């Protein structure tokens, strides 16, 4: 059974506190059984970046400090999503001085979901941690994410409890999070937070495309993975411009419909199309039987009555819904595509050779 746990923390202090969480944000209070769950022994950072040249040097420095203190083999994968500035040149320089830095460069801006998908595809760590490259996510939180995974969770999702963003970002985000909670039943506060940690199998089981990166907890929850939410520190942006705002709200709601149908009906499309098809066909048949009775028994003329056309239309619509359901079942039965090869969208890469194993550099 999948589970979702929410926690609380004093954001003015790096140590978490044991405080009470509102009951409506806790799906289950049962402890997680750690039996059989391997301890995290290596870490991959996947960081999508787009025009972040002013942040990468400091971000790498702070990440290196924290990851060195963790004393675990690690790699830092920067995915340049078609930057127009010198972001890729900086990644080159970081790679030249640190073999643990790896880089992927998209030919153009494909979006965050595809950047994460390509990062997941090449990551080799037992834990895969995603964060933004704008220095708003605090690298000091990384040990807490690892601790949660070691407690038996498959996905630890950050919650920017005291968000340092303008109203143009926080207002639509609150509305979006409320709607997602109600529709999906996954009781998290912050689906938009990009600061997350995954066990490797959880990350690689999620198919990301379009704008579905916001819904990774929902997609993981639908696959039965165990999810926990932890409040994290959040800092104001000091360089560059935000890439999001009110415009993503409409896209988010449309993607929410996609996620809802994928998680609820992907494996049983006939349940989605069959019910309206059955109702439509039954109503059409009942109307047809009534008209047949009038024509045969009462000898009434029915050829020009609108009800006759309605009955035929409802039966045809019902048959079409059943046809869509059957087609969906065929697609679901054979829908096991291989993971997309990230090389299909790359202009160039750094550090990914035939014997790619950057974690060995830590030994």
> What is the CATH C level class of the largest domain, in words?
Alpha Beta
Low-confidence stretches: 7-30
CATH superfamily of the largest domain: Spore Coat Polysaccharide Biosynthesis Protein SpsA, Chain A
Total number of helices: 10
* Percent in helix: 40-55%
Mean pLDDT: 81
State the end-to-end distance: 37 Å
Description:
The chain has ten helices and nine strands. It folds into two domains: 4-265, Spore Coat Polysaccharide Biosynthesis Protein SpsA, Chain A (Alpha-Beta Complex), CATH 3.90.550.10; 269-333. With 363 residues, it is of the alpha/beta class.
Strand and helix layout:
Elements: E1 4-6, E2 43-49, H1 56-70, E3 74-80, H2 87-97, E4 101-106, H3 112-122, E5 127-130, H4 142-150, E6 155-159, H5 167-184, E7 196-199, H6 200-205, H7 216-222, E8 227-231, H8 247-265, H9 269-296, H10 306-333, E9 346-350
Parallel strand pairs: 1-8, 2-3, 2-5, 3-4, 6-8
Antiparallel strand pairs: 4-9, 5-7, 6-7
Helix pairs in contact: 5-8, 9-10
What are the main properties of this structure?
9 strands, elongated, 363 residues, Spore Coat Polysaccharide Biosynthesis Protein SpsA, Chain A, 10 helices, nine-stranded mixed sheet, 2 domains, alpha/beta
Q: What's this entry about, in short?
A:
The chain is of the alpha/beta class.
